[in-house]
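yo

u said u wanted the structure for the complex thing, so here. seqs first:
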Amino acid sequence: MTRLVGKRLLAVVPVMLIVSLLSFALVALVPGDAAATLGGPSATVEQIAAIRANLGLDEPIVTRYLGWLGHAVTGDLGRSLFSDQPVLGAIGERLPVTLTLAVGALVVAVVLGLPAGLFAALNRGRWQDRTISAGAAGSLSVPNYFVGMVLIIVVSVSFGWLPATGYTAFAADPAEWFRHLVLPCIALGLVPAAVLARQLRGALVGVLAQDYMRTAEAKGLRGDQVLLKHALKNAAIAPITAVGTQFALVLGGSVVVEQVFGISGLGALVITAVQQRDIPLIQGIVIVAAVLVQVVNIAVDLSYGWLNPRVRVA
Amino acid sequence: MTVDQADRIEREIAESRVGVWRRFREQPFTGRFLRNRTAVCALGYLVLLVLVAVFAPWIAPHDPDAQNLGDAFADPFSAGHLLGADNLGRDVLSRLIVADRVALSATALALGVALLVGVPPGLVAGYFGGWVDRVVMRISDAVQSLPPLIIAIALIGALGPGLRNSMLALGFIFAPNFIRIVRAAVLEVREETFVEASRSIGTPTLRIMVFRIIPNTLPPILVQISLVAGFSLIAEAGLSLLGLGVQPPSASWGSMLGDGYNFLFQQPWLVVFPGVAIALAVLALNIVGDGLRDAIGRGR
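structre next:
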């Protein structure tokens, strides 16, 4: 198991190197003289010079990349072109909100998708299965921001059950925190729920047809034991992978959903950064998002080892 | 030419048409797809969307940008406005029709970029293998491990807002999907006897690629095209909603959604129609994609 962990951690290095190259290359993509373009038409000569110094545009590109990478590895992602605040600090302020949303969305996905997939697999080919499949196909087609708007129209505006917009910190008022999170998390969680239900149904249908399932039943195990210990554990790998890959999509999707629900998390930060063309801040957000996704991917890969002992040796 | 001859020629033409249609229907791939009625209906809806996009200016009942404050927030089915009017009294149906053109051309642009950037590396990686393969796959791993929308927004931050830039960004992000799918398809065909036969009689590599490999990668590419088109449509609308895609006063389903959202309390329908338009288009693309995938599945 330790070897598996070590190997998996080593595999992160090349991926992160490429990610760093990609986000570093953002400066090169800015049309024309980067410093002048980023400063905008009203920028003074001094402001442009300050931007040039911030981005190190006078140095050769290789030196610049190595210097930037060296700082990034030690957690120094530079300073914002506008507020002059350290990039990592600005991201750190907003990250908890977005992470809460993402985790909440995945909770919604499991709460809805797990029973749906299970129920569909157990009733394969019947109308229940077809209804759930159609529901999943539908959920996959509706954009999360539209789901959010419809939820606001129906739940908040028409019935007045939950607040439409805003966010309350958990420390300030746990009940209000929860009430503000319900709708955005449902909006973000519907697509992962559909993906999870589909994957789980597919994997379970395969496992339920195996001989050892009949053996388990024949030796007199109770129905729920057969299902939990023999079926679910063996069918878990595909759905867990699906939830893992959905994390990246939820993180991206939260940009728009945060805007719809008036929540100022990472999404609001990245939009301001783009409107101000604050390249260091944008680069920082890209790097932080990539690190988060890598962490989740590693957790997913390691869960294989726990679920399937054969993986541990390999 | 006598009347008889003309009749005969016409009959032959008619028969040959039937022949083409029958061959098309009996070909396993298209045949299986055509038997899937839901998928054919979805394909029909997509064709309708394309036709509406092409003839948009002639179909739209009103000038989509014409303001008429007297009609502001008109309800659906009110006089002159089938789907109502927005805060400036612009006809919602007309704007939806014009936005259909924006949505389709944006999706086509993103798809074109993704195909152009994704297919050649996928072919090369799959056919030659070795270190080329490893480098290409590592890069696409890295790109795929990033949240797509955040990368699109970051690229827009560098390139500047606008529909063209945001679609270029999306194209690059979806390219790895094609790299992966093409590489997998090539690996499957590469070892087939007919490719080996071509190679052993000395056919140039480029010729083998174009005439033997590429045709066999087309079905999975088609599936991927319909799925990626769905993603790009949702992403384009999302970016336009944020104000990073289409710029006012042009209409996109996303920007209509964003504008309507500001007047949620006055007229909720302004949100509903563009949202439903996006969802229906994506649903049709997904159903066609699933239908194509089932049609490829051999012996089922």
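The CA atoms of residues 92 and 245 of chain B lie 20 Å apart. The two ends of chain B are 51 Å apart (CA to CA).
cya
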